[in-house]
Amino acid sequence: MPRKFLKRYSPSPKTIRDNKALSYLGEDIHRPSLWHMNRNSVSKAFAIGLFCTWIPFPLQTIIAALLAIFYRAHLPISVALVFITNPITIPPMFYFAYKLGSVMLGVELESVPMDLSWEWFSSTLHQIWQPLLFGCLILAIVSSAVGYFTINTIWRKNIKHRWKCRVDEREAARAKQSMLSEIKKAMKDS
């Protein structure tokens, strides 16, 4: 995974430390393991962030931060991924989750007129909560697993590629050095 790209868009530990809104996390937020980018911490962060994206109620960010602290995942990435859900993406995501949950539970899809307001949601929640939560749970598990294994695989391939480039550079340098020494030896002999 391009570490420079991720570091460029991640807030610094000082920025987080100075943020008063995050003071509820206490001293745990300052642990270096939460800020260190490695394959394991970033893969866990993607799993946590993508899982929390599918939580159909507020406080997703806080849950993602607490899970990142508990599992020692990269904190900024865990929290940032939660923002996949925003006012534009929430309706299609949760409608898809509701449809998936209805199909998986064998529940008939309710033909509830959609208003996309808080009043509509709170009045129809008793009709749709089971399929919605079940669909969200399935999608959370699947997306977090896919995120974890995708990042892990990309990171490993990147490491293998960089290692191969290093080996190739060293072999080229050795070949060049060998050629130069042969030329010097040939010049001495003549």
From TrEMBL:
<protein>
    <recommendedName>
        <fullName>DUF2062 domain-containing protein</fullName>
    </recommendedName>
</protein>
<keyword id="KW-1133">Transmembrane helix</keyword>
<feature type="domain" description="DUF2062">
    <location>
        <begin position="24"/>
        <end position="164"/>
    </location>
</feature>
<feature type="transmembrane region" description="Helical">
    <location>
        <begin position="128"/>
        <end position="151"/>
    </location>
</feature>
<keyword id="KW-0472">Membrane</keyword>
<dbReference type="Pfam" id="PF09835">
    <property type="entry name" value="DUF2062"/>
</dbReference>
<feature type="transmembrane region" description="Helical">
    <location>
        <begin position="77"/>
        <end position="98"/>
    </location>
</feature>
<feature type="transmembrane region" description="Helical">
    <location>
        <begin position="45"/>
        <end position="70"/>
    </location>
</feature>
<keyword id="KW-0812">Transmembrane</keyword>
<dbReference type="InterPro" id="IPR018639">
    <property type="entry name" value="DUF2062"/>
</dbReference>
